[in-house]
Amino acid sequence: MTVVGPFGLSVRDQALEADVQTGLAAVEAGLLDATKSDVPFITEAAQHLVRAGGKRFRPLLAMLSAQFGDADAPGVVPSAVVVELTHLATLYHDDVMDEADVRRGVDSANTRWGNSVAVLTGDFLFARASHILADLGPEAVRIQAEAFERLVTGQILETAGPRDGRDPVEHYLDVMRGKTGSLIAVACRFGAMMAGADESAVDILTQYGERLGVAFQLADDVLDIASDSHESGKTPGTDLREGIPTLPVLHLRAQAAADGKPEDLELLELLDGDLSDDARLAEALCRLRAHPALEQARRDTIRWTEEARATLAPLPECYAKAALEEVCDAVVHRAG
């Protein structure tokens, strides 16, 4: 049993392990090649987050999904590179929107070079992803375009907030389907499609990816409150401090609106105040960790993860399917 990929995923078959490791190494080489430019400064900026590392969660899912066809088919690795380049590009743009200082343990691009360079570098990565896509055929271009539209729509919906009368939790889940679920779904879809898997398998893996993507983001929401920095890789309460709505806080707001408990209203007042003070942030985290809203968010994460796992049921039993199920276990573990 060998550990590969994010979260310490264990692969129990040597042949599958070799395929996954070879594929991920090829993706890494492809990322470095795709981020090279004749202009050294562009290369430095474009490779900034590539070299900072990351889970390579999406390429891993593409490699596992490709096991349901010919995993060595020539389009598998380039399609995984496309998805990861797209993901990286969104990180450059997200850091500008969120005014983030750090990404993956290094200065964010906007901190190091300014907002304009960060935005343009993200655009450069989108352009390189499109260049690779053009060689994968018009169907791949269409799929990527639809996913990117959903991703951007999710971001806009998050910025705009729920319309009057809309349940904020349902709105948030719609945002997560677009922002996170759409691209993870494409990673699974491309892996299977480029490997020549049959249409039913491609559809199953696409649905799995979207549900898993939502669960993955919800687990991050829980981690932002429940974990220490060693566990999560970022400072606890980062989202709280930046005023980013996350599922535990949305559940707290719903409970406060329904019950009007003084302690819930007091906690909301604390969350809506200035959390730049470390002591106030620590108090908010302590109280949220003890609040039922956090456990409710955990249950939601588990529900989405179990839905992802159930989607896989029609696929034939094999080591790749077992590995995809173990990814579900890893997401549940992240959520505690």
Salient structural properties:
single chain; 336 residues; mainly alpha; two-stranded antiparallel sheet; two-stranded antiparallel ribbon; 17 helices; 3% strand; globular
Task: Describe the model.
The chain is mainly alpha-helical and 336 residues long. It is built from 17 helices and four strands. A hairpin with a 4-residue loop joins strand 1 (2-4) and strand 2. Helix 1 (14-34) packs across helix 5 and helix 5 (76-98) runs antiparallel to helix 9. It is globular and about 60 Å long. The mean pLDDT is 90.
Q: Helical element count? A: 17
Determine the structural class based on helices, strands and strand pairing: mainly alpha
Shape: globular
How would you characterize the largest beta sheet? 2 strands, antiparallel
Q: How are the strands of the largest sheet arranged?
A: 1-2
* Mean pLDDT over the full residue set: 90
Query: Stretches where pLDDT falls below 50 for ≥5 residues?
Result: none
Whole-angstrom Rg: 20 Å
Helicity, in percent?
Answer: over 70%
Give the distance, in angstroms, between the N- and C-terminal Cα atoms. 23 Å
Give, in order, the helices and strands: EEHHHHHEEHHHHHHHHHHHH
The tally of strands reads 4
